[in-house]
Specification:
Layout: H1 29-54, H2 61-73, H3 82-100, H4 111-114, H5 122-126, H6 137-162, H7 168-180, H8 189-218, E1 224-227, E2 235-239, H9 243-252, E3 259-262, E4 281-284, H10 292-299, E5 302-305, H11 315-318, E6 321-324, E7 333-335, H12 345-352, E8 364-367, H13 371-376, H14 378-387, E9 392-395, H15 407-415, E10 420-424, E11 439-440, E12 443-444, E13 446-448, H16 455-469, E14 479-484, H17 488-499, E15 505-508, H18 517-527, H19 535-542
Parallel strand pairs: 2-3, 2-5, 3-4, 5-6, 6-7, 9-10, 9-14, 10-13, 14-15
Antiparallel strand pairs: 1-8, 11-12
Helix pairs in contact: 1-2, 1-3, 1-7, 2-3, 2-6, 2-7, 6-7, 6-8, 6-17, 7-8, 8-17, 15-19
Length: about 550
């Protein structure tokens, strides 16, 4: 293939087929190949740790963290820094080599477990280990579907790890699955399909792990009003998903005269009781990730990217953009984790020299409808359903994106009958959460559970309603699913829903390019997966 690169892991991949010259996300070919190599050596590491566990040997927690962070680095819009990725590859190879020496019979392990080389040879090897053509496109499709699910799962596990919560069983599965993806004897559809669904099972457990980590650390989200305006002091805009980084930043900015604003998927931080004590957490600024080039420029202050969803920045604010954890942008200062702590002094000192933010909008957003908060008003919700005041719930969770076709979700939400309630989580909500959709007997028509990982809350809510109404299946509820996806964290949420038996999910704005026709057919026939068409026909199909 003459392509400079090949990547089709996100929804916006070029032409709906694959990026071959440069990623739509901004990823350059030389970065793409190093990400491919990082995935390959991490699969090799997974093969080694799986062998060690089979021999009854303990795998250190630091090794588990290395695997999750490696996968997280390769998620869309996380890391664009080629040299930083090369450093991680080198560290992983050294770690793998040390562990390989502890395997009793290493000769049975795949080539990826043994491969090592100096940095000068990375480029040549990378060109051979990306999304390779195989004789069976369905095998490739199932392998990639599993890989992307594991990448999404790694993000949720990493956030839980940051709060001191571990699950050795999840780590062992992820590493075993990576090893299985190297196994060419697994070329039958049944075995790989089973691995895909098993990934969904562990996806549920991963989201539960993170939910427990967040709520035990910061309390259960509460119904909250989030300010959208700006103050008169310099600010730091924190984006991404990592609540621990927000906590560190809030502590370190106390008494500095610098305000903290959330952005994108960080807005649900305002719903947690533990963050309400910080008077320097003043509101949310901006919208979904894809608008950041314009909004970051207008923010004027320092910006901290804690996880994926960074867009290669304009020169006008590049010197104000800081990264940490899995995030990397060439030319931007990276804040490392040192002995379990992070020093955000460079971010704070930058902010002090900046002008206050330029106001984008005023008003407020209401959110905080995670599972415990909804359970607290369950009687009111059930009564509204029984009385007919609420006819249907529409799950519109997932991701936002820059494609014009995503305006569909704003129009769809705006045209829903007034007896429907939207359940949402993730940045897809920015398409409609600011619309004047009103309420039903005091119940807002948009119930925001939080970040993309808080789709777990939506599952908990659905299962609770199933229990309350005494239904045999979650699919018997007056709930329909119209989910927008963008990257790999949405993939693991989808696989988790499939594992739980949820059917008839509308997925859009397009089905994943990495689904072969036969794999897509299985999803359609067995799970009722469909894509969006147009607003009017979809309203008729889903709502009636």
């Amino acid at each position: 293939m003459d392509a400079k690169m090949f990547c089709y892991q996100c929804q916006e991949t070029a032409g709906g087929k694959g990026c071959t010259v440069q990623g739509v996300c901004g990823k350059k070919p030389d970065v793409a190949e190093m990400q491919d190599l990082l995935v390959y050596v991490t699969k090799g590491l997974g093969a080694v740790t799986t062998a060690l566990r089979a021999e009854g040997k303990k795998v250190a927690i630091e090794v588990n963290h290395r695997v999750t962070m490696n996968l997280f680095i390769t998620i869309t819009n996380a890391n664009f820094d080629r040299e930083a990725i090369i450093d991680v590859i080198e560290e992983t190879l050294a770690l793998k080599s040390d562990l390989l020496a502890q395997v009793a019979d290493a000769s049975k392990l795949p080539e990826a477990a043994h491969w090592t080389a100096p940095r000068a040879d990375y480029e040549a090897k990378a060109k051979t280990v990306g999304v390779l053509a195989t004789e069976n496109e369905d095998v490739r499709s199932l392998r990639e579907l599993t890989t992307y699910g594991l990448k999404g799962l790694s993000a949720y596990v990493e956030h839980a790890n940051a709060l001191g919560h571990e699950n050795e069983e999840i780590d062992a599965f992820m590493q075993r699955a990576l090893a299985q993806l190297l196994d060419d004897t697994m070329d039958g559809g049944d075995a790989l399909t089973a691995l895909v669904l098993e990934t969904g099972k562990w996806g549920v457990d991963g989201m539960a792990l993170l939910d427990g980590a967040n709520t035990s650390t910061y309390g259960h989200p509460e119904i909250s009003k989030v300010k959208l305006g700006v103050g008169s002091r310099p600010g730091i805009l924190i984006s991404g998903h990592d609540l621990k980084d927000l906590e560190r930043l809030l502590e370190q900015t106390k008494g500095t005269g610098v305000d903290i604003y959330t952005h994108g998927e960080m807005i649900p931080a305002h719903y947690y009781p533990a963050f309400k004590k910080y008077d320097n957490l003043v509101g949310n600024y901006g919208n979904a990730w894809w608008l950041q080039k314009e909004e970051f420029e207008k923010f004027n202050g320092a910006i901290l990217m804690t996880t994926n969803c960074v867009v290669p920045p304009k020169d006008s604010y590049k010197d104000r953009l800081f990264t940490t954890a899995a995030v990397g942008v060439p030319g931007c200062t990276h804040i490392p984790l040192v002995n379990g702590e992070k020093d955000f002094t460079p971010v704070i000192e930058c902010a002090k020299k900046c002008a206050p933010p330029t106001e984008l909008e005023t008003g407020e957003i209401v959110g905080g409808f995670a599972h415990e908060q909804v359970f607290a008003v369950a009687d009111k919700v059930v009564e509204a359903v029984k009385s007919g005041a609420i006819k249907k719930f529409v799950v519109m969770a997932g991701c936002d994106g820059r494609m014009k076709s995503r305006d569909y979700y704003r129009e769809f939400a705006g045209k829903l009958p007034k007896d429907t309630v939207i359940l949402t989580a993730g940045c897809a909500k920015y398409k409609y959460i600011k619309l004047p959709l009103g309420d039903i007997g005091g119940i807002p028509r948009v119930l925001d559970a939080g970040q993309c990982n808080d789709s777990y809350s939506l599952v908990r809510i659905a299962l609770k309603l199933q229990e309350v109404f005494g239904l045999a299946s979650v699919n018997d509820l007056p709930v329909v699913y119209n989910i927008a996806w963008y990257e790999q964290k949405a993939v693991i949420v989808l696989l988790a829903l499939l594992f739980l038996g949820v059917k008839n999910i509308h997925l859009g704005p397009t089905l994943p390019a990495f689904l072969s026709p036969n794999v897509a057919k299985v999803l359609v026939e067995n799970f009722g997966i469909g894509t969006i068409a147009d607003v009017e026909s979809d309203l008729k199909t889903m709502i009636g």
